[in-house]
Design brief:
The protein is 38% helix and 19% strand. The protein is of the alpha/beta class. The chain has a four-stranded antiparallel sheet with strand order 6-5-14-18. A four-stranded mixed sheet has the order 10-11-9-12. It has a three-stranded antiparallel sheet with strand order 8-7-13, with helices on one face. The termini are close together. The relative contact order is 0.12.
Length: 677
């Protein structure tokens, strides 16, 4: 054989781009081009990264695991499809662009630019981020079918969004109602319940009476909201207040006249505070439910800007919430109405995007009912066991059914309990957002007329100004990316998808939403298995953040050590549903393994007489031993990969390659005599 010159050290940066280009040129990332007869399909949709910036280590571990899944499926003779895409991320992307525009000198970008010009800035930013993300995914070596790339805000996805909205509206599942919602004063938009995070903090719990003649005291950490109280609720069995139930008592609280009705409600905990709950229907979901049961009026004392409203009274209108609170506490002290003041632990509700305090308040919004029965539309292609066509069920019941009956398996299965707990407490989904970037609510108004679905062809119609929650469009991801609502060959071949691989931190945000939307729209489960990976933390187990200066950038690791080393460091040592620790030293350690593979290849290629691969019989005892070990490792690898045990598979392959093959077999081969082919 002609001698070839192979460097002793593997420098990944010199070869990886060319290797990926060769893979793409082969066309085999597209299942339509795979060789042989492949009747069984295998499908994964890439959880679309947000177009808000760049990929992080969470994306990297996702790409590494999913690439293993799809390459293994190809190896096993399946029509393997991995669909890529990006998420417009609505409020997150808009907030980032607004921040950039403010830094450039604008005070109120939306007001100063107007809708069209502002959206141009957002779309330009999203496109730049998209290009960066696609390049990073390629750098990770992901064997994705780029010919099927999608975007949650493109025209094809918009068509699917409008179709599902219209279907749900016609079935009475989508409705417009004035209800208490989560409002972020900074983002100036509503938030879904699962977009509200809870931050542990300390707060003052104040116990006081509304005025000196009021016959009971209440406890609250937010006395400023008591300006909007319309009732006091007590437990029906609480003997202390039995004689007061049903009465309406007039009170003057901090200068504002209140009419307080005393109601008996079983939701009240008689052991908390004084056992009397001041009911503020406009500023508490729990209080709003009590108000609904007792037909209580609403009084909104905090506005969209986070300031006190005119309904709070002349003395407080226009004040920030904190200032109003301090003023009321001062008044309570002056009037000797403050019975007790104590420090308590509190779960403060904050926006998941900007961490601002969330203010519950009543607003006219669009919702999806999760409890209203509808006629289930069963799929003829992939029906769900136990659900028949036309059967009356609610979305909540369907979501529970598909996991309980094993139509969808969650790995690890301990997250079943988490899933069911969330579903059990699920309330109607607020799907409208007061932002500009996203799918516009497909509803048009002309006087008293309403048109839902596609845009009307005649004049005089005005579209709803709100946009849809970003999870509405991403909830359609498994089937909209395959061409739905058209009855395409891809939908027939590749849906339901085989596996959804994602982080356990978005099981509520995305996984549950996909189950809700897909089972409703197409009568099928979106995927058969959900594989949940954990969070990537630093070597001390801390969350990676800019403030801790402990962020490890996957692109930096690829530049230093190569994509293979980076991927191996994320897979080996990780287990489903558990967080993993990562350090640069760990990545560097797997660079040594990739260098070992390089040197194995270097030795083999410079030792054999021909590069033609031919089947030959074992000649020596060492040959028979290594083939026996290979058969054993192949069986173990197959079992591990079938069971989604990726770390164990990686460890098995590494140990065999390094110990059995390199340290033993090749060392023996260097000194033993026998033909080389």
């Amino acid at each position: 054989m002609k001698e070839i010159d192979i460097p002793k050290a593997y420098e990944a940066g010199k070869y990886e781009d060319a290797i990926y280009a060769a893979w793409e040129k082969s066309g085999f990332f597209n299942p339509d081009n795979l060789p042989g007869s492949r009747t069984e399909s295998f499908t994964i949709v890439l959880p679309p990264p947000n177009v808000t910036g760049t990929l992080h280590m969470g994306h990297a571990v996702m790409l590494a695991i999913e690439d293993i899944m799809v390459r293994y499926a190809r190896l096993r003779g399946k029509r393997a499809l991995w669909i890529p895409g990006t998420d417009h991320a609505a409020i997150a992307t808009q907030a980032k662009v607004e921040k950039n525009l403010i830094a450039s000198g604008l005070k109120d970008p939306r007001r100063e630019l107007g809708r069209e010009a502002f959206l141009k800035h957002v779309e330009d930013f999203a496109m730049q981020s998209h290009d960066t993300i696609v390049n990073q995914v390629r750098k990770m070596g992901a064997s994705i079918d780029w010919s099927r790339e999608a975007y949650t805000l493109d025209s094809a996805r918009n068509r699917a969004v409008n179709r599902v909205f219209k279907m749900m509206y016609d079935d009475g599942l989508i409705y417009r109602g004035n209800r208490v919602v989560n409002w972020c004063p900074r983002c100036k938009s509503t938030l879904a319940d699962d977009e509200v995070e809870h931050k542990e903090t300390n707060a003052k719990l104040y116990t006081f009476a509304y005025d000196k003649d009021f016959p009971m005291t209440i406890s609250s950490t937010r006395p400023e909201t008591k300006l909007g109280d319309t009732a006091v609720a007590v437990h029906p069995d609480d003997a202390r207040y039995k004689d007061l139930v049903g009465k309406t008592i007039e009170a003057t609280f901090a200068g504002k006249r209140l009419s307080i009705k005393i109601v008996a409600d079983a939701s009240v905990d008689p052991a908390f505070g004084t056992g009397a709950l001041g009911v503020t229907p406009s500023h508490s979901n729990i209080d709003a439910e009590i108000a609904g049961r007792h037909q209580l009026p609403f009084s909104t004392v905090i506005g969209e800007d986070g300031m006190m409203t005119e309904e709070a009274g002349e003395a407080f209108a226009g004040l920030p919430v904190k200032e109003a609170r301090d003023k009321i506490v001062g008044w309570l002290r002056e009037q000797n109405l403050l019975e007790k003041e104590e420090e308590v632990a509190q779960n403060l509700s904050v926006c998941y995007r900007c961490s601002s305090a969330v203010e519950p308040m009543p607003k006219l919004q669009w919702f999806i009912s999760v409890t209203k029965p509808f006629a289930f539309k069963a799929s003829a292609h992939a029906p769900i066991k136990g659900l028949s066509d036309g059967q009356m069920v609610s979305l909540k019941e369907v979501m529970q059914h598909v996991v309980r009956e094993g139509e969808i398996n969650i790995v690890p299965d301990r997250f079943d309990k988490t899933y069911f707990h969330w579903i059990d407490n699920l309330r109607d989904w607020n799907i409208s957002r007061q932002i500009w970037f996203g799918h516009r609510v497909p509803v048009w108004y002309r006087g008293e007329e309403i048109m839902v679905g596609d845009a009307p062809s005649d004049d005089g119609w005005e579209q709803d100004p709100d946009t849809l929650d970003t999870w509405f469009s991403s909830g359609l991801w498994t089937f909209s990316t395959l061409g739905w609502p058209d009855n395409t060959k891809d939908v027939e071949t590749f849906h339901p998808t085989s596996v959804l691989e994602t982080g356990y931190d978005i099981i509520f945000f995305w996984v549950a939403r996909m189950i809700l939307m897909t089972t409703y729209a197409v009568g099928e489960v979106p995927f058969k298995t959900v594989y949940l990976h954990g969070l990537v933390r630093d070597e001390q187990g801390r969350k990676m953040s800019k403030s801790l200066d402990n962020i490890i950038d996957p692109l930096d690791m690829i530049a230093k050590f190569g994509a293979d080393a980076t991927r191996l460091s994320l897979v080996i040592g990780s287990t489903p549903g558990n967080d993993m620790k990562l350090s640069e030293e760990k990545v560097a350690g797997y660079r040594n393994f990739t260098n070992k593979l390089w040197n194995i290849s270097r030795f083999v290629l410079t030792s054999v007489e021909s590069r033609d691969i031919v089947e030959s019989k074992p000649v020596t005892l060492a040959d028979r031993w290594i083939l026996s070990r290979l058969a054993d490792v192949t069986a173990r690898m197959t079992a591990h990969l079938d069971a989604h045990e990726f770390s164990a598979a990686g460890e098995t392959l590494r140990d065999f390659t390094w110990n059995d093959f390199a340290d033993w077999y090749l060392e023996i081969a260097k000194i033993q005599k026998g033909p080389t082919t």
